[in-house]
Amino acid sequence: MQGSGTGPMRGIIPRAIEQVGRYKNELENAGWVYEMKVSFLEIYNENIRDLLREKNPGNVKHEIKQNNDGRRYVSDLTMKVLDPSDGDGVNNIMRQAAKHRSVASTDMNEVSSRSHSVFTMHLTAFHKKQRKTLRGTLNLVDLAGSERLERSGAVGDRAKETVAINKSLSSLADVFGAIGRGASHVPFRNSKLTFLLQPCLSGNGKTLMLVNISPTEESSQESMCSLRFATQVNKCELGKAKRTIEINASDCEDSGDDSVVSLRSARSPRVTGRPKQHASGIVLPQGRMVRRKIA
């Protein structure tokens, strides 16, 4: 997801930031002023860790909360202002996150991710003449690969990590299964990962999943498991994504009130496994990209 360097080995995150930067330049020519803040966290053994922290976190406990206007957030999480055209700034954030990311060696992978990570771009655009504000969020999620203990050879802390990883992936599968069936109850609260991503999977945005599989014969069982998971996800229909526009209330009526009202205009993307559907998804209000990989 993060990749390395500035050449063809760049990951999805720096490439997405670059695309947002190009779109930002186009909109600024039309009178919009953009601001982008980013956060980066990992979910390790069902605990949230801040990957952009400057100091030892100590006893800081990050919780998933909801503010007064209904937006979900993680408490005490580092938010950094980032210019998408600042290549050095992007690289610094990637290096800092990599320094804190939980990785370890197993029999299947010398550098195995032991957590799920969520990189989030928080976008705000303001048009002075139109007196409108657009807000958008893009989540880029790197899922740790599911593991079989007999193959990974995980013991002790590694085995505990494997159990937590597989449990959260099962919770994610349950969520997609419930959405695909059109169930009245979707078990978002069964894991930190699904609870955090609930706004993205509740009809307010677009979702794209990329599934990485191994070409080796010895990994055929894991590859088939991943493909079955992808088939289940592709059956999901989230409904219409929504674009959130905030307009100064004084433009609607001559009241002198500077309060903000929220208007929504509908679009109609759907969950899909086809990358071409994601081109416009970079700037939608709630979007998510997920990669599942074999450890």
Beta strand count: 13
How does the helix and strand content classify structurally? alpha+beta
Cα distance, first to last residue? Answer: 14 Å
Biggest sheet overview: 9 strands, mixed
Please estimate the helix content: 25-40%
Shape: globular
Give start-end ranges of low-pLDDT stretches: 250-295
**Total helical elements:** 6
What is Rg?
20 Å
Taken as a percent bin, the fraction of beta residues is 25-35%
N-to-C SSE series? HEEEEEHEEEEHHHEHEEE
How confident is the prediction overall: mean pLDDT? 79
Question: How would you characterize this protein structure?
Answer:
- The chain is an alpha+beta fold and 295 residues long.
- The chain is built from six helices and 13 strands.
- It has helices at 12-29, 87-100, 149-152, 157-181, 192-196, 220-234; strands at residues 32-44, 47-50, 64-66, 72-74, 80-81, 103-104, 112-113, 116-127, 132-143, 205-211, 242-248, 260-266, 286-292.
- The strands form three sheets. Strands 1, 2, 5, 8, 9, 10, 11, 12 and 13 form a nine-stranded mixed beta sheet that branches. A two-stranded antiparallel sheet has the order 3-4. A two-stranded antiparallel ribbon has the order 6-7.
- The relative contact order is 0.15.
In short:
This protein has helices spanning 12-29, 87-100, 149-152, 157-181, 192-196, 220-234, and strands spanning 32-44, 47-50, 64-66, 72-74, 80-81, 103-104, 112-113, 116-127, 132-143, 205-211, 242-248, 260-266, 286-292.
